[in-house]
Specification:
Layout: E1 8-13, H1 19-31, E2 37-42, H2 44-53, H3 62-67, E3 78-81, E4 99-105, H4 107-114, H5 121-131, E5 136-140, H6 147-158, E6 162-163, H7 177-191
Parallel strand pairs: 1-2, 1-4, 2-3, 4-5, 5-6
Helix pairs in contact: 1-7, 4-6
The structure holds flavin mononucleotide.
């Protein structure tokens, strides 16, 4: 049900390239007043990639670092969860999460989700999202794709996930990487029934 606004989001990030897309997604989500709660989970590999791409230092105040908030300030409605904590709220279908987005989604995490391997919180939360028939958006990033990746994308889509590859559009002529990543984040939010006022709209 893409047109029903989602208020309680689970946002996971994994060790694929494209941390700038996560940054803009979190930024837009934390500004959107319709979204009341965000549970945020980062894999260990995501931290490694974010260190390269966003020049983050360590795990402390991770959300504040991603969003570029000064002085250890963090976004109030974003609650960080440990990927090792299989007892966190989003590990249970009884917790009222509305939808989950994995951005970026590595092909390793894709494989584990596609095969129901729920050994860490990210995969468990994705498994729960699917079993509860809630929207699960996988922003997969890898190139080139081998047949294992393609089969796993099919398996995940067949189980109810939306494979939303990290493939930005160019027809609105983005002036910067930030603009490109922000428009992509807006597209993901629109897919969850959360259209953004500043989003580019093709008029034909
Ligand atoms: C700088 C860097 C970039 C990477 N880019 C990708 C990528 O685009 N896609 C991908 O699937 N894996 C990529 N990897 C490899 C994953 O991080 C690795 O397979 C990791 O085990 C994934 O773990 P996770 O799925 O638990 O996050 C990259 C690794 C590094 C260090």
């Amino acid at each position: 049900m893409p047109n029903q606004p989602r208020q309680n989001l689970t946002v996971a990030t994994t060790g694929a390239s494209g941390a700038i897309f996560l940054k803009h997604f979190l930024d837009a989500a934390q500004r959107d007043r319709r979204i009341t709660a965000i549970n945020f989970i980062a894999s260990d590999a995501a931290l490694r990639v974010m260190a390269e791409e966003l020049r983050l230092k360590g795990r402390s105040n991770l959300v504040g670092q991603i969003l570029g908030f000064p002085g250890g300030r963090s976004a109030q409605k974003i609650r960080q969860q440990s990927n090792d904590d299989i007892g966190a709220n989003v590990a249970s279908g009884s917790y009222p999460a509305d939808a989950m987005v994995v951005i970026p989604c590595s092909v390793g995490t894709l494989a584990r989700i596609a095969h129901g391997n729920a050994s860490h919180l990210i995969e468990r939360a994705a498994d729960v999202t699917l079993k509860e028939n809630r929207p699960l958006v996988l922003c997969v990033r890898e190139t080139p794709l081998n047949k294992i990746h393609i089969r796993n994308m099919y398996r995940a889509a067949d189980a109810g996930a939306t494979v939303f590859p990290l493939v930005p559009a160019f027809y609105y002529r983005p002036a910067s990487l930030d603009e490109m990543a922000r428009e992509f984040a807006y597209r993901v939010l629109a897919h969850l029934g959360l259209p953004q006022p500043g989003a580019f709209r093709w008029k034909g």
